[in-house]
Amino acid sequence: MQAKRMLQFQPCIPRLPVPELNSTINLYLKFVKPLVSPQLFSITQNKAQKFLEKDAKILHEQLINFANQNRNSSYIAEFWRQSYLSTRAPNPININPGLFHYKKKDQIQSAVNTLLNSAKFIQQIKDLTLPPDFSGNQPCDMIQYLHMFSRTRLPRKDMDIGVSYPLSRFIIILYKNNFFRIELFDEYYQVSPNKLFSSLKKIISTNSEGLPIGSLTGQDRDIWAIDYDLLSSNDINKANLEQINSSLLILAIEDENVDSLKSILHNYGRNRWFDKPICLTISKDGSVGVNFEHSWGDGQTVTRFFSEIVEETEKLDLVYDDNILVNQLNWEIDLNLKQKILTKHIEFGNWCDNLEIEEFGFSNYGKNQIKKWKLSPDAFIQMALQIAHWRVHKRVGSTYESASTKHFLRGRTETIRSVSEDSIKLTSDQIDKQLFIKAVETHVQTSKIANLGLACDRHLFGMQCIANLMNIKQIEFYDDETYKIFSKIILSTSNLSSENVDFFAFGPVSDKGYGIGYSIHNDKLNLSITNFKGQSTNGNQFKNEVEKCFIQLKQTFD
To answer: How far apart are CA 20 and CA 379, in angstroms?
Structure first.
């Protein structure tokens, strides 16, 4: 069977629609009503009407003009990319998510297996033979894959830049904070398993601990921009940075046992580099993880890559060759810079300690059972999260669920708003079956609107970006207290489900919020819950309430 060409459907992928203005405002009012008091909602209705009659018409028209001038993209793609690059918060926890796959295997054999599968994936992208993704029967935009390898996010004051290099043939290995360059492909783009095996075995024979230079990539972006210039002022260091930036990917091999979710989210800055689209990790027990910078692409793209590279290859009879040479990147670091790196590393570790992480695997049932109850598994979990949050905090919190719009040209994501007039009725200690079913059905309809690119979040954001381009300083609608409540996400949630993704994690997007990543499997439900200490949040209590809710729901629907 002839391989499908990676970009064969690109010409027929539809453009992301700019929603109707009235529809966006009506959806916004529908989504904020359960979040605010009747008095505040009344004020917001008036402000929304004024916005609709005046500023919104101008901004909407200009947004359509912008979309028409960028017919090879989407109206939101560049604004969304810039929103990531302009964020000054550190990449780890705030921006970069992580995926984890448990595996019990010899560490180096696991690393070789992962790299061989990665090489196959990269080769398919290079040759444009990677089979296209589909959303149902609809082909997806595949351009994100062209930015997955040999790319970096470079720190700059006020706004970073994303830089793509021609596909290189080498990767960077991190071990004990040391950087090594090894060739993944030879000059004929062939891969030698024995050379990989020998190179990795030689690397892990290293006894010396390097400086935690990677911690610098976990700083505030403006501070990292200053330190990047300082680090690269030396020609040797500049050449090292250039090799890291242009490498296909980074593979971090652990020399000590590390908690799985901490490993993929931050690892306290040890043995990590947070500016690459792909930083793979291999734990001591052979488990595989990935931490990915987010500006270039989204979770669905990384999930496909990750799901394929953790698959087992055929059993290899690997032979060690002691004559293999590995190229270690040596840095020239003076005493002042060394002290700065060590100080920043400690500060970063202290900041990471402020994050609480709960790993929760529920094995009583999964997708198969939920479908037997004739419920959407995703909506089922979303409503369970709403119930758990209410039971912990006795209030409703603005909730974001990510929906992929990759089936549109240069589509990224849209927001599914999980809080509804129906979800807020699920506030008693007991679960009313009919109320739960109604809330699930409402969420399913909300999800469909988002998947069609017709929800309100990106449209409102796009018009706000247009206002900034037009130098319109103040718009009452966006300054409204309700819009601030709507925008301050308390439950940031995302579903990345694959049989090869055991856990998916990311940080909260607000100090008093939670980050909840989940993977829905046939017979189990895996969740990660993150929150910051000292902010009235409690991840352990939240996890316990989710578990109680799952048990109650089984009793309700059986």
So the answer is: 26
Percent of the chain beyond pLDDT 70?
99
Which residue's structure tokens are 């931050």?
266
- What letters, b where the CB count within 10 A reaches 16 and e where it falls short, cover 36-50? beeebeeebeebbee
Q: Angle at Cα 120 formed by Cα 134 and Cα 136, nearest 5°?
A: 5
Tens digit of pLDDT for each residue in 492-549? 999 999 999 999 999 999 999 999 999 999 999 999 999 999 889 999 999 999 999 9
The C-alpha atoms of residue 346 and residue 216 are separated, in whole angstroms, by 11
Q: What is the DSSP letter of 2?
A: P
CA 151 to chain centre: 17
Mean pLDDT of 351-375: 97
Backbone angles phi, psi at 508, to 5 degrees: -65, 155
pLDDT of residue 429: 84
pLDDT at 210 over 60: yes
CA–CA dist 239, 32 (Å, integer): 51
Closest CA to 162 of 92, 81, 218, 88: 81
Q: Kindly give, in sequence order, each residue whose CB lies less than 8 Å from that of residue 450, ignoring residues fewer than 6 positions away.
A: 403, 414, 415, 416
pLDDT of residue 547: 98
pLDDT, mean of residues 59-85: 97
Nearest 5°: phi and psi at 544? -65, -40
H helix or E strand, kind and range, residue 484 = helix 481-487
d(CA 544, CA 515): 16
CA 61, 62, 65 angle in degrees (round to 5)? 90
Q: Which two tokens stand for residue 536?
A: 């009235």
User: Of 237-246, 427-436, 481-490, which range is least confident?
Assistant: 427-436
Is 293:96 a contact under the CB 8 Å cutoff? Answer: yes
- Name, in order, each residue with C-beta under 8 angstroms of 130's C-beta and a sequence gap of 6 or more: 6, 121, 124, 142, 145
> CA-based angle 19:23:29, to the nearest 5?
125
Indicate whether 322 pLDDT > 60: yes
Helix, strand or coil for residue 72? Answer: coil
Angle, in degrees to the nearest 10, between helices 235-246 and 221-231: 130
Q: What would the two tokens of residue 454 be? A: 């017709």
Q: Which residues contact 513 (CB under 8 A, 6 or more apart)?
A: 397, 488, 489, 490, 491, 492, 531, 537
Partners of residue 514 on adjacent β-strands: 491
pLDDT band at 1 (very low <50, low <70, confident <90, very high): very low
Two tokens at 453?
């690119």
pTM: 0.96
Query: Is residue 224 left, alpha or beta, with left meaning phi > 0 and alpha meaning psi from -120 to 50?
Result: alpha
Q: For residues 519 and 378, give the distance between their C-alpha atoms in angstroms, rounded to a whole number.
A: 9
How far apart are the C-alpha atoms of 262 and 139, rounded to whole Å? 35
For 50, phi then psi, to 5°, come to: -65, -40
DSSP count for the chain of H helices, then E strands: 18, 18
The Cα–Cα gap between 354 and 191 comes to 42
